[in-house]
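Deviation from plan, reported transparently: inosinic acid complex.
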Amino acid sequence: MRFSRGWGLHPCHSFLLRCNVKIKETLLQQQEITERVNSLGQQLTKDYAGKKPVVIGILNGAFIFLADLVRAMDMAVEVDFIRVASYGQATESSGTITLSKAPERDLNGKDILLVEDIVDSGTTMVWLQKYFTTEHQPSSVKTCTLINKSQRRAVDVNIDYIGFEIEKGFLVGYGLDCAETYRNLPEICALEE
Ligand code: IMP
Ligand code: MG
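Because the crystal trials were delayed, the predicted structure below was used instead.
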């Protein structure tokens, strides 16, 4: 692994957080992620049969998961992205969410599948569900997250598709970052506390 050959201690210089944190352990290997994403793709192919869902990735974290997930869906899909700011550079949610990039497709009457990297407090997903149902007129809105991290859940949130349940820890890799670093690790790792 690249980081074990020298990425173990990675200083991320930022005013808010220096992500000067070591990788503690690998929680999900590449193969395990691939198998789970493929099985989610098969499930979605069945559940959306006869429809053409708009798969909306929540930037930046979901970009790798979405890329693999849509290729595991054996059907026509549309792809779009939304970006909200909630975390900044810190590892704790600020609680304030702002829209920084709106989706560009016409979502009127469409079946939306929201794709997230990780649901933690749940605040972002609840905000997004409300945004899509009040600002657009979709036919349906479903949610899919690669990781459901339930320990710090602060609000009730409905998630239709979950890749993995991981109770706690700060995770990086496969799209997940610490102060914008580590997104390109092919596996998912926990940082030291
Ligand atoms: P929530 O609003 O607290 O559910 O936070 C959701 C967002 O926080 C996710 O989309 C991630 O960008 C970020 N996040 C939460 N936990 C982690 C983590 O363990 N690693 C990296 N990002 C995280
Ligand atoms: Mg995210």
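The chain has one domain: 15-191. We consider this an acceptable substitute for the interim report.
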